[in-house]
Design goal:
The protein is α+β, with helices and mostly antiparallel strands. The protein folds into two domains: 41 residues, GTP cyclohydrolase I, N-terminal domain (GTP Cyclohydrolase I, Chain A, domain 1, Orthogonal Bundle); 131 residues, GTP cyclohydrolase I, C-terminal domain/NADPH-dependent 7-cyano-7-deazaguanine reductase, N-terminal domain (GTP Cyclohydrolase I, domain 2). Helix content is 41%, strand content 24%. The protein has eight helices and seven strands. The strands form two sheets. A five-stranded mixed sheet has the order 5-2-3-6-7. A two-stranded antiparallel ribbon has the order 1-4. A hairpin with a 5-residue loop joins strand 2 and strand 3. Helix 1 crosses helix 2 and helix 4 packs across helix 5. The chain is elongated and about 60 Å long. Zinc ion (ZN) binds next to loops. Its EC number is 3.5.4.16. It catalyses: GTP + H2O = 7,8-dihydroneopterin 3'-triphosphate + formate + H(+). InterPro entries: GTP-CH-I_C/QueF (IPR043133), GTP-CH-I_N (IPR043134), GTP_CycHdrlase_I (IPR001474), GTP_CycHdrlase_I_CS (IPR018234), GTP_CycHdrlase_I_dom (IPR020602).
């Protein structure tokens, strides 16, 4: 799959100027040797961390849909998530667990983590991220059900603010059989928790 260009020279230039100001405002000397290239590095890092705005998650899934009569649960678990909270622009990160029950169509497995990234590489709140992933899969695959669980640590709660270093946040979103059928939901949760390896 072709990767889009991440860095835009004009954006890099504008953001670099802003970050040079920021360095001065926090009491640093932007002209000392170690910091000379820092504004440009940060400008690029920020573009990378928000590159999801230029990606279309539905198109990602549509790129690998296959007709298949498999109708059991498909689970991709322990997908690394790296995002940034929209309140503090600090990272939150953890794992996503995704399941769906196909209804005539399956999707290329790698596309599910790609969808996670496309939504995560934006300013987010964990709950919205969870729902966006679910809705994208629901709309594009039209399966019998979708389940998404995210478990994340929020740096805005750990490095600052309440400073709860060991807290983590779990969010979940379901559709179809995962909502209407308790045993399907339980099967998903058991399989996510199971240590098969
Ligand atoms: N629901 C939700 N809240 C989040 C997420 N990321 C950060 N937050 C919270 O957003 C809230 C913003 O609250 P404010 O009171 O406006 O900000 P603040 O004064 O910096 O809050 P503290 O973090 O409590 O110091 C905080 O409670 C954060 O913990 C998220 O993904 N989901
Ligand atoms: Zn935050």
């Amino acid at each position: 799959m072709q990767e889009k260009l991440i860095y835009d020279d004009k954006v890099t230039e504008k953001l670099s100027a802003v970050y040079k100001e920021v360095l001065g405002e926090i009491g640093e000397d932007p002209n000392r040797e170690g910091l000379l290239k820092t504004p440009e590095r940060v400008a690029k890092a920020l573009q990378y961390l928000t590159k999801g705005y230029d990606e279309d998650p539905e198109e990602i899934l549509k790129g690998a849909l296959f007709n298949e009569e498999y109708s059991e649960m498909v689970i991709v678990k322990d997908i690394e998530v790296y995002s940034m909270c929209e309140h503090h622009m600090l990272p939150f990160f953890g794992k996503a667990h995704i399941a769906y029950i196909p209804d005539g169509k399956i999707v290329g497995l790698s596309k599910l983590p790609r969808v996670v990234d496309a939504f995560a590489r934006r300013l987010q709140v964990q709950e919205r991220l969870t729902i966006e992933i679910r809705d994208c899969i629901e709309k594009t695959l039209n399966p019998k059900g979708v389940a998404v669980v995210l478990e994340c640590n929020h740096m805005c709660m750990q490095m600052r603010g309440v400073q709860k270093q060991n807290s983590s946040t779990t969010s979940s979103a379901f559709t179809g059989l995962f909502l209407s059928n308790d045993s399907t939901r339980k099967e998903f949760i058991n399989l996510v928790q199971a240590k098969l390896h």
